[in-house]
Amino acid sequence: MTNITAPKIPDGDKVDFDDIHRKRQEKDLSELQSLIEAHFIQRKKEEEELIALVNRIEKRRAERAEQQRVRAEREKERQARLAEEKERKEMEDQRKKHDDDAKKKKALSNMTQQYSAGHKSDNRKGAKKQTEREKKKKILAERRKPLNIDHLNDDKLKEKANELWQWLMGLEADKFDLGEKLKRQKYDINQLLARVQDHQSAKGRGKGKMGGRLR
Questions:
Q1: Mean pLDDT per segment of 10 residues, for the chain of length 215 residues?
Q2: d(CA 43, CA 41)
Q3: Distance spanning both ends of the chain, measured CA to CA
Q4: Model pTM?
Q5: Hey, is 192 helix, strand or coil?
Q6: Alpha-carbon gap, residue 118 to 128, rounded angstroms
């Protein structure tokens, strides 16, 4: 604690206690005013800091709300795109399925027509000359009932198409085998004709040569 010493009183002068008391009050008042001003300055500073903090909080809250709004809008657009893409894909799949079904029915109809036309052609050729195997095929073809595919579902149509496909493959295999057999027979005949001609030429009997090779 600061030691307070009494002011020196000049010798021979009167002491004005009222003046001393007044000056003391003025000093105390000045110090009080300084404290009050410092208090209000500090309070104003704290209020400004509080207002700034509130503004930052509100700004951050508004930014988060905007970010959430943007994310929600983007998610909504993404879901809309997914739904649109799903609908487009479903429509495309339905269109492809419809086209495939139409192609299958058309293919089956063409195969049926070819099947009937093939048997009619075989019947016309068989009227001139038929082998035992062709006669058997004609009998089987006459016994085969006409195809009726209008009432078949997808699975049955697939089975019928596979059945006709296997039948066509069998015909192609028979055709190939007959072609190879015919080539072999022609080759054997040509070889025999060549040997006969060579044999006749060797004996000097070339006047009676047989005809040329088979083609």
A1: 51 68 86 90 91 91 92 92 91 89 80 66 58 72 65 78 84 88 90 84 59 50
A2: 5
A3: 145
A4: 0.30
A5: helix
A6: 16
